C-alpha cells in the first residue's frame, strides 16, 4: 500500500548546509522535511511518499531545476513547488513561468538567504493533500472532479477580498475578489489547489457564483460602496460570453451605487486574443465594466496594442515587487511601468507587497496603488466591512 506523507516536504538541493537549515525552519512551521541530493531518488519516491511540497534548488552547474519541473509535471505531481534560488532573477522568472505553464502549483520563489517570516508567508494557505491524492493518468486526483461538482451545487465556494491601498491618500481604494473553497475535510483551499482541475463549464459556473456573491456583499454592507473598484478574475472565454454581460446587467440593476466592477485578465490572454482589442473590450466599456491586465510584465505586450485597449488598471506582477529594494533591474521595470500608466491614464497596482518598507519605494517610483499581505491578507466580506469601518473612523 502506498503511504501518505501529506504534511511532508521533499527538499532537493546539493548543498547539505542549506538543506539542513531549511529543514529546521520547515520543522518550526510544522512540516517534516526529507532531504534528497539526487534528482532520480526524489522522482523514485515521489509517488510513494506524496509530499505536499517540493523545495527545488536552482543552482548553476548542479541540479537542472527546469528539467525537474518537467519531471514533476510528467509524473502528475499535484502538490506545491517552491524554488530556492541562488541564481539571478531572470533565470528564476523563466523557471517559474515554465512550472506554471506545465500546470504545477508554483509558490513565490525564495533566495538562498531568507528569513523564517519569508518562508512562512510563501507557505501561507498551503494545506495537507487529501489521502486520495495520487498520480492519476491525467495528473489529477481521481475524485476531484466529483468534489468540485458537489462544491458548486452545495455552495462551498466563498468570496474573499484583498484590499488595495491608494498610496497618495493612504486609504483602501479597492478590493480584489478571490475565490476560496471551504472543503468539508481539508479546510479552506486556495485557487492553485483546485482551479487547474476544473472543466471549462465548471469554471464558468464558478465565475457566476463569484459575481453573484460580490454583488450580494455590496448590497449587504453599505461600507463597501465607498470603494473605487472591485476586481474579479475572469478568462478570455468569459469576456467573450454574451451571458456574462446579461448577468452583470441583471446583478447591477438592483444596486443604486455599486462600485465599478473591474474584470481582470492576464497579460498573456489580453494580448494574445485579438477580440479583446476590438469589439469585446469596447462592449465591456460601454456596459460600465472596466478591464484590468493582471500579472503585467511577465508577458510580452505590444505597447501600441495596450494603447488601443480600454484598460483602466495594470497589476504589476509580484515577481518585480518582492525584490524591488535589492534588484536594480526590478526597480527599473517598476518605474517604467508606473510612468507608462501615468502617461496612459491607467492605475498601476503593485501586487505582492510583503514589506511595508516597499511602499516608500513604490511611491517614489510612481506607483499609485499597492496590494499584498504586508497591507492585508484576503479576508471574508464581514472582516472587510469591519476593516473599512475602522479605517473610516
From TrEMBL:
Pfam families: EAL. SMART domains: EAL. Coiled coil: none annotated. Residues 8-127 form the Response regulatory domain. CDD domains: EAL. InterPro entries: CheY-like_superfamily, Cyclic-di-GMP_PDE-like, EAL_dom, EAL_sf, Sig_transdc_resp-reg_receiver. It comes from the Bacteria. Residues 141-392 form the EAL domain. This is EAL domain-containing protein. It comes from Halomonas salifodinae.
